[in-house]
Structure formats: C-alpha cells, structure tokens
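DM from R.C. (forwarded with permission)

"hey, sorry to bug you on a friday — could you get me a structure for this? deadline for the figure draft is monday and I only need the backbone to look sensible"
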Amino acid sequence: MDLIVAFLTGLTTGGLGCLAVQGGLLTSTLAHQIEQDLQAHNGIGSTQKFKPHIAQPILFFLLAKLIAYTILGYLLGAVGSVLQLTPMMQASLYFAIGTFMIGNGLRMFNAHPIFRYFVIEPPSSLTRFIRRKSKNGESFFTPILLGTLTIFLPCGVTQAMMATALGTGSALQGATLMFAFILGTSPLFFSVAYFATKLGSVIEKYFTRIVAATMLIMGLVQIDTGLNLSGAPFSISRAVSIMQAYALPAQTGRSIEVSEFGYSPQILHLPANQDLTIEWVTRNTQACSRSVVVPALNYQKILPTTGRVDFNIPAQEKGAIIRYTCSMGMYPSQLVFDLESTDTNQ
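My reply, with the result:
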C-alpha cells in the first residue's frame, strides 16, 4: 500500500513539483540533442524535414534519475540522511545550474565565443568509445549525467518522500519507496518534454531560438530560486511577493499558516530583543510549502501534513529581518522584528 501511495503521489503532486525544479536539467538535455540533430540535418541538405530524435535522451534522463533516486533511497533507509544539503549548498547548486543554462542559451544565440565552454561533453576517449558502440553515433552521456544530478535538486514533495524512506529503517524499503515515487513522476516528465519539443519542430525555422530562449528563462528562474534559498534580500519573486504583502495591513501574532499556496502572513511582525517561539500550522497541506527553509538560522524542516510545529527564534535586534522560503525557493516570506516587547503578547 505504501508503494501504491508513493507512486500516485509521484504521478500527481510529485510530478508537478519535480518538473518545476528539475525541468531545467531536462531542457539542457534536449537542447544538446537538438543541436546534434540540427547539425546532422544541415549536413544532408535542407530538403529533408527536420525531425529531432528526442525520445531517446528523455528516456536516458529519466532512467538515470530513477536509478539515482533508488540508490539514494537505499542509502537513506540504511544509513540515515546521507545527502542532507544545507540551504547554502542548495542555493549554490541552483546558482551553478542557472549560470550553466544561461551560458548555454547565449551560446546557442552565438552571443560570444566564450560561451562555447558551456557544453557538457564526456572525455574524448569516452566519446570515441560511445561512437564506436552506438549505431547512430549519438552520445547518451549528457542525459545520463544530468538525470543523475537531479538527486541534488529535490522538490519539496520529493524531500518529504526522502524523509519517509529514512523513517523506514530498511535499505530495501527505502529503495523501493523511492523507486515507486520517481517512477510515478516519469510519465509527466516524458509527456511534457516530448510534446513541447514536437510542437517546436512545427516551426522549424525558429526552433533553435525557441530552445535558447527557454534556456535563458529557466536559467533566470534557477538563479532566482538560489537567491531565495540563500536568504538574499532581493530576488524577482521576493520583490513581487513582498510588494503584495505590504499592500495589506501589518500582521502580528505567533503562528504562520502553511497552505498549498504558501505562507500566511507573508510578512509577520514580531517583537525584538527577546527569544520567541512561533508555530507552523498545517491543515492537510501537501505542497512544497511543508518543507520550510530559514537560511539565516540554518533551519530546515519538513512539516507534517496536518499539525503544529514550534519554531524557536533567538532574540533579534530591532529592525532585523529573517527571510524564509520553501525548499524549492518558492513563496518567499519574512519575519520582521520591529515591535517592542509590549506591542504584542499573542
């Protein structure tokens, strides 16, 4: 029954959450394959219809991801939180991947020769071996590598499933649980990537530019996520979120509602110069908002689906701001310490 629940979770909320976080790596995989196909197409003349071979790299990507997470589940069940990343480590990964994607997009636009280095290629000896063994000469190195890297970018739902694998106390159960979950996410990954790329082939003339523009946009999203996870005072999504929050009356209290749509209030005003305890409150919450990250305090917690969890905060100077978000860098919110101790006693 646990495996069925894990599979269905991956098929629904897990698939959407993973696609939002890991879609950039999949886009990089497809961009690499499309470039190879375009070069081959141009080599045989323009009379033949351009048909990118995208099913194979997507399958390699998803297979590598499935194997990597199964191994991770085995380790989690056997040893514990083996690959627990701090918020800054997660932010650094998002920065690196975002930079790579932007550089790759600019390379495809031929913006500058320096961007030719933003290509993931295996060593030349391995490339020659792959070409000898492959009938069509296509390399599967890039999709396998990027699919494996997804273990370092788990969405909030995936992190909750990883915590469940950890709680099994069994290597075999942890592995099968993660296998079922990631298997459930795969149909959505394949469908979105395959049909979106097929749609692009209809407008072949602009296809490369469409892929490059997508890379740039998703790269910026990855960097924005990294900024939120690092607790940076500014990011595009944080600016929009805070502007919306400041349009509402100032809110005080000692609890934060964690819903499918984020945190309420987005800005909570608290007294300065005293230790505080606030509550995270969930009510049948399934979204990534359950996975809370507070970078300044090196705090990360996966909240129960329904319940109340205390969050202890050491005394902060007046005017201090503590920023937090979910593990996917979404729903940026903050705690503002601008009240006297007598201003609120809730």
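R.C.: lifesaver. Residues 2-230 form one domain.
me: no worries. The beta strands are 251-252, 255-259, 262-264, 267-271, 276-282, 291-294, 299-302, 307-313, 320-326, 333-339.
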